[in-house]
Amino acid sequence: TQLLEQSPQFLSIQEGENLTVYCNSSSVFSSLQWYRQEPGEGPVLLVTVVTGGEVKKLKRLTFQFGDARKDSSLHITAAQPGDTGLYLCAGAKETSGSRLTFGEGTQLTVNP
Amino acid sequence: DTGVSQDPRHKITKRGQNVTFRCDPISEHNRLYWYRQTLGQGPEFLTYFQNEAQLEKSRLLSDRFSAERPKGSFSTLEIQRTEQGDSAMYLCASSFRSSHLAGAYEQYFGPGTRLTVT
Fold first, then answer.
1. Which of A19, A27, A76, B105 has the fewest CB atoms within 10 Å, counting from its CB?
2. Residue B115 and residue B28: Cα distance in Å, rounded?
3. Which has the closest alpha carbon to B91: A46, A5, A29, A100?
4. Which residues contact A111 (CB under 8 A, 6 or more apart)?
């Protein structure tokens, strides 16, 4: 069974602080995606990484894919209240029809 | 810009009733996925279609669940004889292979259907 573990599960910080969310697995993935989800809504795709060691930046968000394509991290610089939400990592394997295996998510709260 | 749409957004039903949900994917997307998400958890894969063919079903999917995508466009997910344990958010996603992302199928999710079984 593929398993993605995210840490931490909950994170409450003050506006302006930096944070990192981790996503780890013992399996190798063809690609890894990060999503953000608001209550009562579907996940919204933030980024896809496919190459080991790849780093992508999206404004204040930096995503990294591990060299072995088993893990990933999301770093947010100078967090803002608008960053509040559930952050989900999801891995896909070409051999599995690219269905996504999700982590349990990290609930981030940024307090003003 | 039309993304993935799902209908209804909310459904309350009594235990034992049948329910059907609909998903309309992004028009040029050939793959369609169904996931289920319970509170505090990430989505879990249920089944997926490539065009009209259902290619995989999760072992988690009981015989009471059935999905169709008759013309390779919209899809329906039916749950028969609903149980309280079926209460969850049912999410639909669609994708189309992007040639510039080797092996990557970016999936775009709809807003979900929240099912409550009383």
1. A27
2. 28
3. A100
4. A12, A13, A14, A15, A81
For the record, the structure tokens of A108 come out as 């981030």
Report residue B106 as tokens.
């970016």
C-beta of residue A97 within 8 angstroms of C-beta of residue B56: yes
d(CA B105, CA B87): 28
Task: Decide if A31 and B114 are in contact by the 8 Å CB cutoff.
Answer: no
Q: Please tell me whether the peptide bond between A8 and the residue prior to it is cis, using omega within 30 degrees of 0.
A: yes
- Can you read off the two tokens belonging to residue B14? 């009594």
Task: Report how far apart, in Å, the C-alpha atoms of A13 and of each of A2, A21, A35, B14, B64 are.
Answer: 31, 13, 20, 41, 43
Q: What is the DSSP letter of B98?
A: -
pLDDT digits (tens, 9 = 90+) for B56-78: 899 878 899 999 999 889 999 99
Phi, psi torsion values for A105, nearest 5 degrees: 100, 155
A42·B102 Cβ contact <8 A: no
Residue type, B6: Q
Q: Are B41 and A105 in contact (CB under 8 A)?
A: yes
Beta-strand relationship, B88-95 and B31-37: antiparallel
pLDDT digits (tens, 9 = 90+) for B15-47: 999 999 999 999 988 899 999 999 989 999 999
Distance between A18 CA and the closest CA of chain B, angstroms: 24
**Cα distance between residue A61 and residue A57, in whole Å:** 6
DSSP secondary structure, B86-102, as one string: G-EEEEEEEE---TTST
